Amino acid sequence: QVQLVETGGGLVQAGGSLRLSCAASGRAFSSRAMGWFRQVPGNEREFVAAITWNGGNTYYMDSVKGRFTISRDNAKNTVYLEMNTLKLEDTAIYYCAASPRSYETLYSSPTRYADWGQGTQVTVSS
Q: Do residues 45 and 96 touch, judged by C-beta distance below 8 A?
């Protein structure tokens, strides 16, 4: 099991930037694929981005391609989501998640992830 804590959310104007961090505990982190998801109250949790255990492959939802970048630092047990050119529709609670097994491929379904953080709020204002 991997414990996850997200930080870095906040209020930002449209067009601005934020960097989210997800700190993980446990040695298992470095072998797990990691994902970022977001959720607006009343809506389903939505895939944003994912990264393989070694950072060699990444995967993004279409609406964030070219604006968001997922990365990881296994020495620091941390995964990041750099968000640029933020839009009003990016407003949501953002969650990071870890795959249940080592060296897995990337998935966009939240059911493929086993461990979740508590989330961090991102609010984009006009």
A: no
The most distant pair of C-alpha atoms in the chain lies apart, rounded to whole Å, by: 41
Q: In this structure, what DSSP letter does residue 111 have?
A: G
What's the pLDDT tens digit per position in 74-97? 999 999 999 999 999 999 999 999
Q: What is the pLDDT of residues 49-76, one digit of tens each?
A: 999 999 999 999 999 999 999 999 999 9
Say how far apart CA 49 and CA 80 lie, in whole Å: 10
Nearest to 93, CA basis, from 39, 27, 31:
39
- Output the CA–CA distances (angstroms, integers) from residue 41 to 16, 68, 102, in the order listed: 23, 22, 31
Angle 3-118-96 (CA atoms, 0-180°, nearest 5)? 70
